[in-house]
Amino acid sequence: MEATSQQQRSLVPGAAFTSFFKEWAILFIFVGLFAACSIFVDGFFNGNNILNIVRQISFLAIIALGQFFVILIGGIDMSASSSIGFTSVLLAGLVHWENVPIAPAILIVLLASVVVGFVNGLMAVYGKIPAFIATLVTMIVLKGVNYLYSNSIPISGLPAGFKNLGAGYIGPIPTPIVILAVIAVACYVFTMHTATGRSIYAVGGNEEASRLSGINTNKIKMIAFILGSLLTAIGAILITSRTMAGQPTLGENMLFDVITVVVLGGTSLSGGRGKVVGVVIAALILGIIDNAMVLLGIGSYWQWIIKGLILAAVVLIDAKTKKD
């Protein structure tokens, strides 16, 4: 009887459109915001400006995709901010002080990021420490390591060719945009077309039911934490390439934007719901907002207030959606 009632509701004129609008509201918001800025903000609708926006958000989007996996299981990775600085200073230190060639140095920092994610997972999954607290501990420890290792100063001396990763081009397209596209497609295929990816959704949606259905929930959550840390490191490597220096403070102001992008993209803070495409579109929206505020001459303090209000609104909408 209930199924029949649902089928009848689905036949109501406009129901299909309403469902589609709710599912892809983030896309409508992006189109509307882009159109409004193009009309009302001088200098926005310019090829170079738009390309610059996409390049700027590429770093943020890659890191946000890492946070996406952790939030998808109902967790959160507070260590992402310090992990960015850790990757940056470790990479620069290996190259500048230890004379390690850039390619092996990148491999080493990626392996180090896996270790960070593994430690986060051990504390949160097997230690039963709430993810917020476990990753907060890692954040504080890594922050201390960053300043000790770098002597609290930027580490320069990176090879000139390394700059191509964060500031170069592949044909007419900036390299970070190409890397983001490859990573986003890989994440989409992983989440939508692999058993492990679907299990991440299942565990985030209902961990107990997932366990009873035969999913190794602890293993899945460990994978999510490791993927989060690994993608954060990739984003940090690209930012380091752009700045050409290892900086211990590099990610200290990024965590808020990262979480805003993931939640704005439709990922539920309680886990089990979200889309890779939504995260990328949300990063573009935040990039447009930042760019428009700069072009309009809005001060940095007001920018923080506006973005904070945006995050609050999105969280309230997320809570209302769960009740509905």
TrEMBL record:
Classify the protein's membrane topology as the record does: Multi-pass membrane protein
CDD domains hit by this protein:
TM_PBP1_transp_AraH_like (cd06579)
> Which controlled-vocabulary keywords does the entry list?
Cell membrane, Membrane, Transmembrane, Transmembrane helix
> Where located?
Cell membrane
Subcellular location, principal = membrane
Regions that span the bilayer? 24-45, 57-80, 100-119, 131-149, 169-190, 220-241, 253-269, 276-295, 301-319
Q: Matching PANTHER family, A to Z?
A: ABC TRANSPORTER PERMEASE PROTEIN YPHD-RELATED-RELATED
Q: What is this protein called?
A: ABC transporter permease
